[in-house]
Each structure stands twice: as structure tokens, then as C-alpha cells.
Amino acid sequence: IGMDDTFVLLAAWRRTDLKKPVRERMAETYSEAAVSITITSLTNFLSFLIGVLTPFPAVQIFCIYTAVAVLFTYLWHITFFGGCMAICGYAERRNLHSVFCVPATPRSVAISGNKSVLFRLLCTGGINKDDPDNLMDNREHTLMVFFRDSLGKALSYMPTKILIIMCFLVYLIIGIWGCTQVKEGLERNKLSQYDSYSVTYYRMDDLYFRKYPFRIQVVVADELNYADPKIQEAMENMLQKFENEEFSAGSSLTESWLRAYLQFQKDGRSFFLLDGFNLTKKEDFIEALRSVFLRLPQVGTFKKDILFNEDGTSIVSSRFLIQTKDVRNANQEKAMVIKLREIADNSPFNVTVYQQFFIFWDQFILVRETSIQAISVAAAVMMVILLIFIPKPICALWVAFSIISIEIGVIGYMTLWNVNLDSISMINLIMCIGFSVDYSAHISYAYISSERKTADDRIRSALHSLGMPILQGSLSTILGIISLSFAPSYIFLAFFKTIFLVILFGALHGLLLLPILLSISDQCCSSKKDDIPLYHPQKSGSSVVPIAGNGNIIIPRPSHPNIAVLGITDLKASQQTGKDKSAQEDYGKRFRETPSCNISADKDLGIGTSGEESSEGSWKERPLDSSSRAHGDTQLIRYPYFRSASHEEHSNPAFEEDETVQIERTPSAPSSRNSSRMSLYHIDNKTGHFNVRHSEEQPIRSSGERLSSVSRTRDSPLSSGIDQSKSAHEQQSQRPF
């Protein structure tokens, strides 16, 4: 168990930059791996604590021991092992040999110096200080590259996803069918070593003496008046219920002292022996029983079935023996015990049934119920922990699904592998909860922590981070228990089989199934978000002007002072590619920070900054140029709404004081549809600002004329406000923007 955390920490250490200080490398390692190992250690610790609540002492002892071991291992990793990594980090920084702590030769220097293969294998390491970025000294681990570039790439293809899901469904169907064939109980011959003589004895006993296997004792612990005919009738009815069950051999093999005593009373040959006794009275009934009936040699065995009080005047308790037949396995033994106790509980007397093997059969009754309870509680606790450390419900849901799937697989396949559900396998099923969470939690946390944008890229990033630690952890655990497979005992062999199944299914779920489920659910959620119209109410501080899903620009009346930024190129591309709102904001922010975006203008380009709303042709000129977008050629034009010296109130309802509309668009030549409008403006090469172009073909017009000449959408939200504020704009027509 402890080696899993070791591999996770080492993998995180390998991904750090060798040129950084050791303190920064340790910080990066713990920031990436500490949460992951905390989740797995905490889930393992709690799953074993839940096992302490079971009623089996052996399970309790094992779970207490393992829980303490898990806690100690976790503390050891975050303290002592971290210190060891830091010491090794300082040795790496000085290019010291990992074994002899002497300066080592970088591999690139050894190759350039034509050193021998043995020297390059055993005496090289570190990086060349003269060329620290060379590929030879900064090679990634082969397995990490394999999980990222080979397995991760394969899992990104839809046919591969479908194939793995189909294989998983087959696995799940077989596992569910195996769960229906579960055999409960621990057979007697499995308690001994395979080479013990007792195994032969138990097998012979099961082969030849299972026709009539057990004598069941029915004990009545009440002080009754057996001379009463009603008591005799009730006692007879109770015995008949026991004898009529399918596991009973019938009345012919039942031993009942009361039935034999009543038959003795009715026998004519006993008339002279019982003469003078009134058998309807309690005193005479007991006196005749003790002095006459129990002294007969034929019924001497009944003396042990009756317990008298101290003075011998009353029967304190009595016993009857029932013979069973055709009880051949643990499931039948469990069913027999349950039915016997049900009849005893429903009888009018204080009745107890007993057989010396009941101490083993009782665990058959409790093991299924206890296992289900322990697994359910542990799974619920795991869900809560995962929601705390991985606050993404869909990830927690898929991890919980993986836990259930692994449990079904382990129970079903261990049944097909001749392992019964008993106290030994129940220990392993409790361990299965912790192991199944380990690999699933590692992958889920790495997936949601990845900074990649697409789901397939996050799969590759997660596998690159934790694919190798999962493989190392699973192989090390299997190698650690593989010696148990050669032990001549069912207990050790069952332990090996269940742990092997847990590790195998857990690793396959973590490396293959869970990444696919996370990516598919992520893609579905992203596609649903893309179908929602992009118009949303803006929060305070937001800088994006939303647009409707049909592509028309809508500039709503603001309810608070704000700066609205409209990335036309980005928003238009998002409708084509299905990017979400956050991607648009990040993309627009990246281009707004470029020097080419610091262009201010003081003329209206058709976005409605002077009380008019743009026509469709003012910005929908040509299709997006993907190459210009990729190379960052998007142009940003700012329109500051300048105030007059007297700070007069403007009547434009679309804007408030100190508001700026920023427009992000791909630069393009003015089209013929808007040539009359765009010919008013040109960019001053010195200042980078838009200025009014004075030409004979296009005289300068007033603000009011421009308002009347520009085409507007009749249903625009600014139309009514523009019409009402026309007079105010005419007063400002002589003032430049």
C-alpha cells in the first residue's frame, strides 16, 4: 500500500524542472501529489476503520492493524520521504552519482566523448551546465511518454472508446452473473493445509456421510407441567414442525423422551408397572418418570435429556433431538439454521436449537449482510471525501461508479475462481474499497487539475502524470503478494486471488475506463453549454458584451457603470467551433494585451456609439480568416465616449458616464456595402488613431445626418432611445467626437 504513494511522489518529482532550485521543485511536487495521496490514504484509513465495526474478531484485528499501518505510511511519506527527496534533489543539482555520491558525467558529454556503453549506463547522470537544455540530458521517462503519446492518443479515438466500453459491458455482465452464483461459508477442509490428513477426513466425511449429517438439539428451557395434555399437544406440534422441514429426516429418527414416555403409558405391558400412579397429576407424572420409565435399560439415554430441580419434583428443562438429511454445502447449512431458529422463535415455549457447528454457520448468516453494510457505508464515505477534495460532482460520480463496478467484478470473478464469501474474503472486499478508490481518485484529480482545454488533451495529461505510478503501484502490489499463490492453504490463496482481482480491475478502470468516461461526460457537458445562447446577464466587473444566438449584435441598456468589450472575431468563431464563454474571454484578453490593439478612434464605425445601431454590413463583411486569428492579427478598436468641457448630460440611453465600448475584429478592407460609411475614416500612421477623412466625394455630415442615413434594425433595443434623443445629438453635431 505504501509504495503507491511513493510512486506518485516520484512521478511528480520527475516532471519538475531540473534547473529550478530544490525548494521550488519540492513545492511543485507536493502541490501536485500531496492532495492525491491524501485522498487515497484517507479513504484507505476510513475503509479499514469501517471494517472494525464488523462482528468478527479476526476482521476487527486485521482492520485495526492495517488502518494504523496506512496512517503511519502517510505520515512517513509527507515527512521523512519528502526529506529524502530533498536530499536527492541537492545531489542532482550538483550532478552527484546516485549511489556513490561522486560527481557524475552528463550523458551528453559521455556520448560526445565516445565513452563506453557500460560507462554511459552506470556512471552518467545530471545535466550539462554548458548546454542545460539539450535533449539528451532532459529526456522524459519512456513509460510516461508511452502513456501520453501512445495510450492517451489511442483513447482519444472514438472507435477505441466504443471498443473499451463494449469490453467493459461484457466484463460487467459476467461479474453480475458471478454475483448470482456466490457461495457463502468456509468449508471445513479449507481450514487446514492441503497436505494435512484432516483434509482427507473431511472429504471422506462429506462424500459418504452427508446423507444424514447432523443431529440438532431442541432445548425447551421452561419449567412446564408435562402432565398437562395441552402442554403435551403443544410440544408434539412443535416437534412435527421441525420434522416436516425439507432438511429433516422425519419422525422416525427423532429422539423425544416425551413421545416415548406417552407411548409407554399406553402400552398394556406397562399396566402393572404404572399401577397406583395418577399420570394426570404433575407429582405422579414425574415420580413414574423417574422411578419407572428412566430405569428401563432401553431408554437409559433419555436421562441426559431431562433436567429436574433440586428436589426432583419438577422438570426445569428438557431436550429433543432432530435428525437432518441431505445438507451438503454451506448455503444449505445456512438455510437450515435460519429455518430452525425461525420455528424455535415462533413456538409458544422458550426454545433454543443448537449444534456444535453453529459457531461456524453463524458467520455464513452474517457475512453477506455485514459485507453489504460495510461496502455501502464505505462507498458513501468515499463519495463524501471525494466531493470535498475533488469538488466536481461528475468526477465523484464516476469514481463511485468505478468503486461499485470493481466490487461487482471482484465478487463475481472470485466466485468463478472458487472463492467463497466468508470472513476471509470479506476482509479483502473491505480492502477493495480503498484500493479501488486509489487509482480512480488519482486519475480523476489529475484530469480536473489539467490546464488543457479539450477533454482528449486532459486524458493525455492525466495519463502522463499518473499512468506510470498506477502501473508501478499495481505491479508492486501483485509482486508483493504473488508468493501467497504458492502457499498450501486456502486462506492464503483466497487472499491472493481477491487482492489480485482488486488490483487488476482497479488499474484497468483507472487507466482505460475512467479516462474515457470523464472525457465523454466532459464533451457532452461542453456541447450542451455551447447550445445555450451566448446572451447572459453580465456580472459586475464583466467585460464582455453578450450576443444572441442568431449572430445579431445586441447592446443592452446597462444597469451599472461598466466597460463592455465585444470580441466580434472570437464570438463569431465560437458559434462555429462551439467554444464556451470562458474561452472567449481568455482569447479576447490575450489579444487586448498586444501592442497592436492600442488603437483609439474618435469616429463611429457602426456599433452605435453615437446613438445609432450598426447595420449588418458594418461588421459582417467577410468570413473569418482562421490564419489571421491563429497568428494574432485581430484588431481592437476603442471608442472612448468623450465628454464636453461643460460635462453636459447626454441623452443616449445606451451609455453612461466614463463608459467605453471596445470592439475586437479581424482587419479587412471595407466592402462595397459599407464603402460610403467607412470612407469617412482613415488611420493616422503616426498616431494610430482614426481621423475624419475630408474628401470631395464624401463631405462631412452632421451627427443628425449620419443618424438618418445609416440603416438601422427596426426592432433594435436602441431605436426608441435614438429617436427620442435626436434633438440632443443635433446640439452636439458641431463638436467632434
TrEMBL record:
Q: Which family does it belong to?
A: Belongs to the patched family.
Q: How does it sit in the membrane?
A: Multi-pass membrane protein
Give the Low complexity compositional bias ranges: 667-679
List where in the cell it is found: Membrane
Q: Where is the SSD domain?
A: 1-87
Q: Which Pfam families match?
A: Patched (PF02460)
Q: Where is the chain membrane-spanning? A: 33-53, 59-88, 162-178, 372-390, 397-417, 423-448, 469-493, 499-520
Where is the major localization of this protein?
Answer: membrane
| Keyword Transmembrane attached | yes
**InterPro entries membership:** Patched_domain-protein (IPR051697), PTHD_SSD (IPR003392), SSD (IPR000731)
Where is the sequence biased in composition, kind Basic and acidic residues?
A: 578-593, 618-632, 683-699
Compositional bias ranges of the Polar residues kind: 705-737
Residues of the region (Disordered) are 575-737
Q: Its encoding gene is what?
A: LOC106475514
Q: Which UniProt keywords apply?
A: Glycoprotein, Membrane, Transmembrane, Transmembrane helix
Source taxonomy lineage?
Answer: Eukaryota, Metazoa, Ecdysozoa, Arthropoda, Chelicerata
- Return the protein name: Patched domain-containing protein 3-like
